[in-house]
């Protein structure tokens, strides 16, 4: 489990599935790693009151934008499960003297709905 001090770092995963029709559906998960997200997906499928057919699983730590909505690529959670709000996150993760800079060239950038990179369905 990756932790920043006492905060648990989780990144965004998008699970694409269909319900036996022609539409594709997206379900977002924030998870520590791939094992964690797969456990969450299994729980999602078990609780669903409709058929769920696996299409793709995508790890998008840089975030995801569709239409006018964006999902953060990374969130921080307290050990009790509560989320750190953005203002708190900046205060807790950045030293006070740190300046705001552009992302390094190797850092991930937000993904959009048109990006085809993904992990194929298992099996």
Question: Can you characterise this structure?
Answer:
By secondary structure, the protein is an alpha+beta fold. It has one domain. It is built from 2 helices and 9 strands; from the N terminus they run βββαββββαββ. Strands 1, 2, 3, 4, 7 and 9 form a 6-stranded antiparallel β-sheet that branches. A 3-stranded mixed β-sheet has the order 6-5-8, with no helix packed on it. β1 and β2 form a beta hairpin. The longest helix is centred in the first third of the chain and has 14 residues. The two termini are 27 Å apart.
Largest sheet: number of strands, sense, barrel closure: 6 strands, antiparallel
Would you report the number of β strands?
Answer: 9
Indicate the overall shape: globular
Domains, number:
1
SS strand fraction: 25-35%
Structural class designation: alpha+beta
> If you average the pLDDT, what whole number results?
80
Q: Roughly how much helix do the residues carry, as a percent range?
A: 10-25%
The termini sit apart by 27 Å
Unreliable segments of 5+ consecutive residues: 98-108
Number of helical stretches of at least 4 residues: 2
Order of helices and strands: EEEHEEEEHEE
Using only C-alpha atoms, the radius of gyration works out to 16 Å
């Amino acid at each position: 489990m990756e932790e920043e001090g006492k905060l648990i770092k989780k990144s965004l995963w998008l699970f694409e599935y269909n319900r036996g029709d022609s539409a594709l559906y997206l379900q977002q998960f924030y998870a520590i790693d791939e094992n964690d997200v797969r456990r969450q997906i299994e729980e999602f499928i078990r609780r669903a009151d409709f058929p769920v057919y696996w299409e793709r699983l995508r790890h998008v730590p840089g975030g995801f934008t569709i239409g006018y909505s964006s999902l953060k690529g990374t969130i921080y959670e307290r050990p009790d499960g509560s989320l750190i709000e953005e203002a708190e996150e900046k205060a807790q993760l950045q030293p006070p003297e740190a300046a705001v800079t552009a992302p390094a060239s190797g850092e991930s950038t937000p993904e959009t709905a048109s990006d085809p990179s993904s992990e194929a369905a298992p099996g």
